[in-house]
Amino acid sequence: MASTLAAERPLTEQQRAALEARDRSVSLSAGAGCGKTFVLTERFLAHVDPTQAEAGGLEELVAITFTDAAAREMRDRIRRRCFERLQSAATPTEAAAWQRLMRSMDAARISTIHSFCTQLLRVHAVEAGLDPQFEVLDAAAAELLKLETVDDRLRSLLLAGQEEVLDLAAKRGLDRLRSDVAELAGPRSDAATERWIDASPAEVVARWKEFYEEVAPAAFEDLRQSSALVELRRLCDPTLAKSGHLATRLTELAAVIDCLATAQAASCGEQLAELLKQARVADIRGAKHWNNVDDYEPMRLACERVRELLKKCPLNEAPEFGLAAEEAARQGLALLRMVADVTESLKAAKARRNQLEFDDLLALAHRLLADPEHAAIRQQIGKTTRLLMVDEFQDTNPLQVSIIQAFCGEDWRERGLFTVGDFKQSIYRFNGAEPEVSTKLRKELAPEGRLSLTRNFRSQPAITDFVNAVFHDEFAEYEPLTPARPQATETPSVEFLWTPGDVDDEGALADADAELVATKKRRRAGATRDARVLEAQWIARRLVQLLRSRERIVVGKDGAPRPLEPGDIAILLRTLSDAQVYEEAFREYGLEYYLAGGHAFYSQQEIYDILNLLRAVASTVDEIALAGVLRSPIFSLTDETLFWLVEKHKSLNAALAAERPPANLSAEEAAKVRRATATMARLRMEKDRLLIADLFALALELTGYDAVLLTEFLGPRKAANIEKLLEQARTLDRSSPGDLQGFITQLSEFVVRAPKEALAATQAEGNVIRIMTIHYAKGLEFPLVVLPDLDRQRNVGGSQPVLDARLGPLIPVEAEEEGGGCIGLDLYRHVEMREDLEERKRLLYVACTRAADSLLLSSSIDDPDKPKRDWLQLVDRHVSLADGTLREPLPAGYAAPHIRVITERPRIDDEAASVSRGADLNRLVTKTRELIAKSPGELPRECDAIGADGWARKRFSFSQLNGRLAVEEVESFFSPGDEDLEEWAEFLEPADRASDVDGRELGALVHAVLERMDVRRQEGVPELCEYLAPRYTEGDPVTLAAEAAAMIEPFLHSPRAAELAAATVVRREVEFLLPWPIDAADGEGRYLHGYIDCLYQGADGRWRLLDYKTNRATIENAGAVARSYESQLLVYALACEQALGEPLAECTLVLLDPGTEHAFAWDAAARRKSAARLTAAMQSLMNEQS
Prior knowledge:
48 helices, Rossmann fold, single chain, 7-stranded parallel sheet, 6-stranded parallel sheet, alpha/beta
């Protein structure tokens, strides 16, 4: 029968086995491009074939797909196959049977698992305790309801004085607590809540300790085998050292690493802590201490990599399961109880509204099927359902698998189940997918039910050879892909494109590229983006090369090679956050493209525009929202128009209420203002009587905004996003009719929180390159796949709390004691990191297997022989990144891939290639100058010169006044004509020091370290300096870090630091606003703004102020240097006195270089004198700017 159904397409032996295995449950492992959808379609038809004597009915089959789109595709494929069978029918009776089946396909039970559960619950609503007319909330509506519930419940608990909630709010901050609860509350927290709600802190900590003993051996072995540690040990060769001190350090470091070979995981904490200490970059000296200066940089990088690895490892010091851990567990349990409280309130709110969200559907369906009380339902299902088919089974979670097993009955291992999936393509952990559960189910089936599809119909042999070579020993029980078609194009079909991560200044790069790389070397901030820009340009140039060459590198529908076209190309990214880099490169080289997919719906400019419009309609005092909507394409006012509106009427809302626009506007701009006035008045008048969707539609009708969007780049996508937002408004109208403020609140929350929400689906326009994420490309194929940015660093995640069923509540807390913090969270992150690395491996497999004819892998890379990131390391384990040759011979039956490696800038005719979408600005400027020379013309009225009014300024910072004040103060300290006056001017600002360190960079770094340092723990200063230094220098961060540490460490051993350590309250970088003049009744709204380095409350209850300076000074001249900062310290003192309501006990300038202090005390006359100087400096600045 299988051969009859698939007569038009010969079956492979594997496909035939899958179609004929009808007497048992089957788990079909379908490799990429191996025709799984075809097998699912044929298997479905095999059960309902009306020409068979025992044909089943549509109602006896259930097919579950991963997405609604996949369900539609499967239904359409089955309908097309029915039509094909109808056309080839031998008799009128057979044709009529196929026609009836085709017409009834709309009733086929093909859906996502959520739709399946919805149908199941509606049919058995009474048993499930539901109203069968329940509403299923979409993600946006469910999120809004949860946020409202969190706010209501949190407010109630705080007003009731609930002690745990007050404690959490005090320790974590109210905003953070709200965000944490909103993130964790909901059905997904039920498992952790049920397991840990009644646990004590001691029980939680005991579980952490038990888990530590479980994961420690594997974590320790991963560390010992890490490429970073292996490389560091290789470089610890004392013969490489020129100085004896360096040779000793290398010998000691090698000994520490060698000790790890015999150490045990349970007792390795001290050794790892010693390694962390020994691997400090500062201890390996500078390049001049090495026999070969080229050895210094690899050693420095190796030390950085090992230290970074150790800091992320939960074994790097002896774990603390004492008081600090118990405090973390106590806070975690308090948060868990609050989440449970909010979740119960959320359930009650949904019950009152007769609503369910997606996770509720799964939980209730599972309870319905698994509860012994409902055995009759399972029996009924077993009698009426012959087969359950599940597509993309690798992306299921434990609850979904339990539902599937319960639906099939206790004999699911023997009959009634047909799953299709591929462990290697499971890439949805962020959605809760656990590929291990699908693998476990597969292993529980009989061997004859564990079938595979490995014959690949998508890719040419050159692609499958590369995939097999790279991944054959990366996955357990790997089954190689076998190409179903011959190699039709010339090889190599796989290319490596490596752009330089670092080159010599005299490297053989084009000028533009050399400038980019030189920028990267000089400046670490932004270096990663610079590298991506260079890589994107090389990719664009290579694509231009291929498109122009007309080489036949892809295969047409007729099976013959043909030249590449833009529509054949797909750029697959891990995330669209950097898509703009590739868009700019493609525009520069005249390559048309389309941006597909994405989940940043609430980050689109058109969403911001509509939100601003609705805010401005709802409120007549929201000036920011009104400015946003007036400047947007909705009304298209210019910046100059907005200025004149505010200049004449003091506010935009007042300007719209005025009788006429300002006279400064041109006729065109005045007409726009009148139109905006009329439109806003109409919408504000209608807002209280229309539904949200009707008001939204009226706004589009009056403004034509959706039509305007169609004229922009990606216009259809933007217009579709507006339609999607309008549909969300309709959804809210069904539950809360006309709740405009609720819709604004929902949209505002989503814009801030940016939840993952897909953009509206549209089709690519024309023959263009497509840019998309790898996840979006899942299930698709393209003739040429470009996989860029292989060296991209993985996202290590944030510091959000976690509710884990295994480990309980895990909440990040500040470490108050040595070794404090949440060890449970550290362990969880370590395990998650390993799982994440495994999924990233699968993600690379999915990306590579999208290619049909050609594959281009690209990255910025410093040294192809020493890759730094996991994807490059994975490829390099099997294929040399440098030359594309195999590292080791492949197993029997595998073919070696042919790879072209490109390390030079692709050469093209730049003049012809660089076709920008925009105008040629140089030609435009030249043309404008020619026109002005002929006739000056007349500027638009709104472009009249706007005079600067320095006296309108309200905000001043001390740094802006410092130059004027400091000169005055130094001059007042010296007598006129004093020869030392010029020398003292050096100390007005931090200057370059005797070393190569920039004084301002040193000052910034020292302040950053002192802000973060815990003075109670006097060690760790060099490490913190090394960590922060790259953020503050364009030069050598090692030298800067060493000098900063040398300045800070003596201070930490001073009496002042001891006093800080004993203080009851310490505040660092305290921001202040000080009205000025401080004693004036009307200060005209002017104020001083600044930051105080340190403000602390001593044991006596009095407050003290410290200001740190890194100027060069000596003990002898310290008082004179301090004198230049007198006015600054007075401002700080006045700000503190105003805020605290009491005078300071001390106001002290700390000169860190000589290690001295200078205390200030002012009498009334001194205060008046300094205040007068400040006022004079302000007036001087305002006069200068007028």
